[in-house]
Write a structure and sequence with these properties.
Distance between the termini: 16 Å
Radius of gyration: 22 Å
Structural class: alpha/beta
Largest sheet: 8 strands, mixed
CATH architecture of the largest domain: 3-Layer(aba) Sandwich
Amino acid sequence: MIHYQPMAVQQATFKAGLTRPVHRWFRLTPSFGADLVRYLLAQLHCDTTDTVLDPFAGAATTLIECQQLGVPAYGFEINPFLHWVGQSSLQWALDPVTLSERLQQLLIHSQQQQTRVCFDNLAEHGYQIPPIHNPLRWWRPDVLTDLLILKAQIHQHCTTTAETDFFRLALAGVLVPELSNVTLGRLQLHFIDRSQDDIDVLSCFAAHARNMIADLAEQAPASAPAQHFHTSALQPAVTLPQPINAIITSPPYPNRYSYVWNTRPHLYFFDFMNTAKQAAQLDIDTIGGTWGSATSRLMKGVVQPACSAVEEVVLPVVAQIRQQDNLMANYALSYFNGLATHLRAVQNLPRKNLRVAYVVGNSRLKGIYVATDELLAGLFAALGYENIRVERFRRRHSGRDLYESVVYARQADDSDSKR
């Protein structure tokens, strides 16, 4: 049931997309790679007659890959910024020549504004500093000024929503870490001193935008456009136009990763959020969220299993964690309650001959080994799936026995000739 099939880091992680057309438009570090998606499509025997769902779609890696291959696909994403990134990344009908001309206009107008606007007179010129806590921790005053100027010029001079989104996405693609006071860690952003760095907002933006335009010039029109829905994987509030045949996805891992933190500067800079409460609520609503209130809500009491499957499969491990720490036990059980809630929600979606591949990561919580892949396999079995197998493809940096894995399964009540 469990076997080890090594895969290079370059293939399995976000690094695979750093040089791939369209995938390179926005880098989301805690995400799986385009090469891994293509591998999973082959493992599930997906072709252009199938419809793929990624219920934790993030920046739409699965959807981009499917659209490039002509495979119909849907995505769910609860983070409003990531949903917008994914939706914008799937729009390939823009004219590269027009975009190149617009880029030059944006640069000229931004340069003109730079001669009269500085950080101290932003308000006089109608610029609003992002309502993120301590914005100057995130951006140098001069860099933030240039960012706000460019953002305003994009909105003022782009003539269509698609064009505006394209250049906003180009700016989002370099906002972190190139133009911020942070560096990218394995899971989180870390603040660094960039007071002496040479940071040129317009040059950085222009170089990235030109790469994106070049990708569009080479990209064939989408033969099977993907749809990205802004909704939760736990309770999807959408009606899918047609049945799904495959799920390829990667839920957040149970290692106290904040679903908000890596996109927090984007959420506030691009006006998706304006209060701290909104960020905290987003982590509460996600699987494995640990931002602010999402953690404080778990500090007291004892979280109960959401269903008999969780009680049977997960509770023994949680009981071991609870002997060490009640908070982390509650966190672990809440995480797997969320997974089970999601899996049960899948049963309400239109589907046919459903095969699934979930990319997950094992963890240690308070010294207790949490084999997420085995536990998810157990949940699949308890919920009536069959042909369940675990393929461990990569050892994680944090421990020799911590793996990233793919959990495969299919619905037992479906007749499927694709095995």
